[in-house]
């Protein structure tokens, strides 16, 4: 009872001070910490890409996450921890000193300032890397829509294998560009619908391959089936890598929020000359 009365009286004293009428949020410190964290995040990501901690795929623009590895995920977490700690520390160290606030209230406000600085940095980083975020949200199917002959895509190599002629065979009567465009559109439509190829599409692809390459109909059907299986496996790997990337980014964001809040507490303690809060 005595402890509750003491805490109650402390809050009553706080509410009677002129400071209680002012906002407890130091937006200048929050923005400064957020901008610093966002800038440091971009620097660390550029450094990680330069030293090899990259999730860029050998398929170029088709699927930037297809070659994603655990090392890249761990680097994301380390980047978030370092950048968020610096931003949170600045937000706590640069904020206005609260002379009339209770120790517990100061602890909460510093934590909130660190969290808000992390939120500002996250929004700024997302805006700077909006193209990467759009790719992440669109999923692996965004790469498949490029295979209709308009630009390089994830399945271009598999389409090429369908219409690649045997050097020993006679010259094909079907134009290479038209054959690839037809096969590409069939692949794109099928994989947008879950990777199911209709029997009529399979038969047409087999006929197209037979005419273009000079092989028999049976051999063409076998090539079509083998190519579809390889393409399905590649798309599945890309989707799994995209899911892993999303999980690692989620973990990095959570770690960054915690690190920013904790660093703001330490920064606020240094700002007030207390270093550690006594509860």
Q: Secondary-structure blueprint of this entry?
A:
Layout: H1 2-16, H2 27-51, H3 70-94, H4 103-128, H5 130-138, H6 141-144, H7 156-163, H8 176-192, H9 199-213, H10 217-272
Helix pairs in contact: 2-3, 2-4, 3-4, 3-10, 4-10, 7-8, 7-10, 8-9, 9-10
Main traits of this protein?
rod-shaped; 72% helix; 279 residues; disordered N terminus; mainly alpha; 2 domains
Taking pLDDT < 50 over at least 5 consecutive residues as the criterion, the unreliable ranges are: 1-16, 56-67, 139-152
In DSSP terms, counting alpha (H) and pi (I) runs of 4 or more, how many helices? 10
Give the H and E element order. HHHHHHHHHH
Strand content: under 5%
Mean pLDDT: 75
Structural class: mainly alpha
Write down the Rg: 29 Å
From the N-terminal CA to the C-terminal CA, the straight-line distance is 17 Å
| Main sheet specs | none
Helix content: over 70%
Secondary structure tally: strands: 0
> How many discrete structural domains?
2
Please state the overall shape, judged from the principal axes of the Cα atoms.
rod-shaped
Describe the structure.
The protein is mainly α. The protein has 2 domains: 141 residues, no CATH class; 95 residues, no CATH class. Helices cover 72% and strands 0% of the residues. Helix 7 runs antiparallel to helix 10 and helix 8 runs antiparallel to helix 9. The radius of gyration is 29 Å and the shape is rod-shaped. The two termini are 17 Å apart.
